[in-house]
Amino acid sequence: MHAPLEKETAWKRRKFVGTILTALGTSALLPVAGFAENIRMPKNGLTIQQVIDIILKSVAGAPFKQTVDTIKSGDPNQPVTGIVTTMFATIGVIKKAISLNANFIIAHEPTFYNHLDETAWLENDETYKFKKALLEKHNIVVWRCHDYLHAHQPDGVMMGVLTAMGWQKYYDAKKPYVITIEPASLQSIMDLAKKNLGIAHLKFIGDRSQVCSRIALIPGAAGGTVQISALQKEKPDLLICGEVREWETSEYVRDLRSSGSKSALLVLGHIVSEEPGLEWMVKWLQPHMPGIKITHIPSADAFSWG
User: Fold this and answer.
1) E-only strand ranges, the chain
2) Which of 189, 162, 188 is nearest to 175 (CA)?
3) What is the largest distance, in Å, between two alpha-carbon atoms of the chain?
């Protein structure tokens, strides 16, 4: 692994990893924060910036001094005509937003193919220019909501996944990344994930028939240190995560099981493991923005299976 990539990778998950490490007992919990109830709808409706401000008021410590959650395109001072939430502001998602007359896209991940959305290296790229021109033509604002969604208490992505899986009743604010469900086979849990999260194929390490109850649930790409720390500290029957580096967590689990442990690993995929959080965000926002249509458009997995 090249040093610059290591540096970027370490920084880009700082907020998310910090939140998970909090759950593992390595830092103090953020205080619970709710929507500011003193915000009133202006007579002329909300601007996009006012929508962003409402979201920030629900997150302790916001706005953050260092964050990737910035405007990626457009003028946030224009009135909002509609909101779309999604994992990635793909060209397909942008076109669907246009058809809905929505000029504000809230995306969880980068728009321009790198974590910081740096575009200098793309200035002569035809795909970048096409996407940029499409956004500009239709006056669409793209704002990333990654750090703030994870920092919200409870974590919006976690709540989205738990809700989609029907596991929200097992949520424990004291240990948000650990749930104890009714005993179920690994196979039945995989079947549930496929059905409820819309996943066609899953990667796993373990015995399909083994019974699982205590689950460590870490969506997205928290990295090997966080995932392995959860296995060490919580000793779950099953670790469910979004993605792994295949020289880290998966190899640890392989050796862990060979040494006598029964902990299993289920890898959902990064996008599909966090997409429910953006769907959850619609229900989170809607009551505080009456009259504004908010739609979740899944960006879905980019891959097909051969």
Assistant:
1) 71-73, 83-86, 104-107, 141-144, 178-185, 203-205, 211-218, 238-241, 264-267, 294-296
2) 162
3) 65
Predicted local confidence at residue 4, as pLDDT: 39
Alpha carbons 259 and 277: distance in angstroms, whole number: 36
Collect the ranges in the chain with pLDDT lower than 70. Answer: 1-44
What is the three-class DSSP state of 265? strand
Non-local CB neighbours of 55 within 8 Å, separated by 6+ positions: 145, 148, 285
Tens-digit pLDDT profile for residues 209-220: 999 999 999 999
CA dist list (Å): 228 to 222, 232, 245: 10, 6, 12
Locate tokens 């891959």: which residue?
303
Strand partners, 226: none
Domains of the chain (ranges; CATH) run 30-152 (3.40.1390.30), 166-270 (3.40.1390.30)
